[in-house]
Amino acid sequence: MKANHKDPQIHPMIELRTYKVKNSALDFYCPLCRMERQVSCRVGLSPLNYVQITMVSFVLVTLTFSRMEAIALVWPFLVWASFEIARRLLFKRDVPCPHCGFDATWYKRDVKMARKLVAEFWEKKKSPSPPTKISHPNK
Ligand SMILES: [Zn+2]
User: Which residues surround ligand 1, an ion (CB under 5 A)?
Assistant: First the structure.
């Protein structure tokens, strides 16, 4: 369902053009502004990520086993943790709505903080910062 431009429920300051994501992992509608949303990656790791974790861990263990011995077997867990953290950071980066500032991850943890973020988003949108002066290095 596409958002109707004449829909009286949509705030006039909300930009009606949607941001398209190439190869989106999840399509949904923003619960606050009802605009079509997409995120590029899911929270969990994909089967391809597990293959990558296995390969990177194998290389690291092979390279460091002669020096570190049994401690080198910690590498798979470190690589796995770093993949999980990177995946969650990428997901968290994509979740906030570019139209209304609603962040579902904050809403799940702390509703007051989510409201504050939306209010800050609208404050920024109402009073755009003046353009920064960029001086040319040769002048
Ligand atoms: Zn929204």
Answer: 30, 32-33, 97, 99-100, 102
